[in-house]
């Protein structure tokens, strides 16, 4: 979890205790759902507010187990149990979650079993930055590979890893998992469970006010999953608060992804597919904005360090950032990006001959560029970037911001006769002409397209619009449903042919001539 005051210890162990008020409400929800456990386990119990609330509410349960890595917390828990007269069959274990054989422990417990808790909300990359040993054994449990793993998609919340372990504990058992976690983590757990056909008889998400209870600016929830060893129900009711009785939406799983609106998705599933003529791309990744991003001042540029520089035009391109696209702010203070390569891995030494001032500027900032932390830059040419290719230099583009919470696709023309580039939180399609860009934007901004995409988007996420969602929309099928497939076929008839890049250049020149007649 986040906190207004993050010490190394609280950060490393996600050590933000569940307030008693919230613990009481959580257990109250479980009682209203008719959950009546014979054993209760809290694997990361801390000072034990959730566990003690459960003991009070379920006094006839046969076994209670609380475990934590922090002995000081366990001391407070023991004192609380004695002070509040809760001395029953309670086992308090001083244990590291990652070293404990939980399957063996749970095999000794009478069923049904309630696994309750508030696992750490810290991420694996944050713990690595702290050089923490409080991590699971390193494994690529999502099966990420290639650039996805290298650029951070292999990063995960520790609570996510723990919850996946909880799922394995209760397979073929009668029990319940009730965990406080980020809402995004809850959805990841559900889709994993649904993909693996885990026997979940009921799933519910109850949203909580993380700012109120933990001073955390994050969407958080109580995730409740019930297991009976038989059913596998791939639906989840979502409630806005812990006290609501009517769900605001029903999440579902179909085609291997979680849906925010099952009904709408199913009605528009005929436009699902990856279009062969258009590929969604993200903007350029450089991880050094103070050097690579510039603002024009007269005939010169100013970098992020406030230094005035003079560069050749060859490698400098107009830049629109995610905030520009999201706010439709296409005209304003002119920003630029230094684009050192036309394709990933291209030799950058050519810059020295073609643009000596630019080369000198890069050399002067060599340390900053060499110090970029991501492993994607290792064993690459000096001053390398990523997310660059022929598509980067297409004259027209249709773009959308991944951060802004609305579906608004914007046509981006060339600026000063040069193609516009984006930061890596912008997604776009490349087009050869304004006619093509206007047509594609019209398709994407149609109600049909927006409803289809909206059925898969969770707007509370930090980056709700993702390239994975966008690429599910088959533009030709969309055009067919809107009655404009013939126009789509006419516009795309040259795409994919060997000399398409030359045709793009020719079409661009023809458009320029038309404008100046």
Would you mind describing this structure in some detail?
This protein folds into two domains: about 10-260, Rossmann fold; about 280-515, no CATH class. The protein has 22 helices and 20 strands. The model is unreliable at about 1-15, about 125-135, about 145-155 and about 495-515 (pLDDT under 50). The radius of gyration is 27 Å and the shape is globular. The strands form three sheets. It has a ten-stranded mixed β-sheet, sandwiched between helices. By secondary structure, it is of the alpha/beta class. The termini are far apart.
Strand content: 15-25%
* Radius of gyration based on Cα positions: 27 Å
**Separation of termini?**
61 Å
Q: Kindly state the percentage of residues in helix.
A: 25-40%
Please summarize what this structure is.
With 517 residues, this protein is of the alpha/beta class.
Could you list some keywords that capture this structure?
22 helices; 517 residues; globular; Rossmann fold; alpha/beta; disordered C terminus; 10-stranded mixed beta sheet; disordered N terminus; 6-stranded mixed beta sheet
Topology (elements, then pairings):
Elements: H1 8-13, H2 20-32, E1 39-42, H3 49-57, E2 63-68, H4 71-83, E3 90-94, H5 102-107, E4 113-117, H6 124-129, H7 146-153, H8 158-170, E5 175-182, H9 183-195, E6 200-208, H10 210-214, E7 220-227, E8 235-239, E9 249-254, E10 257-259, H11 262-267, E11 281-282, H12 289-292, E12 293-297, E13 300-303, E14 308-309, E15 316-320, H13 322-326, E16 335-338, H14 350-354, H15 356-364, H16 366-370, E17 396-401, E18 410-412, E19 421-422, E20 426-431, H17 434-444, H18 447-454, H19 467-470, H20 475-481, H21 485-492, H22 500-516
Parallel strand pairs: 1-2, 1-4, 2-3, 4-5, 6-8, 15-19
Antiparallel strand pairs: 5-7, 6-7, 8-9, 9-10, 11-20, 12-13, 12-16, 13-14, 15-16, 17-18, 17-20
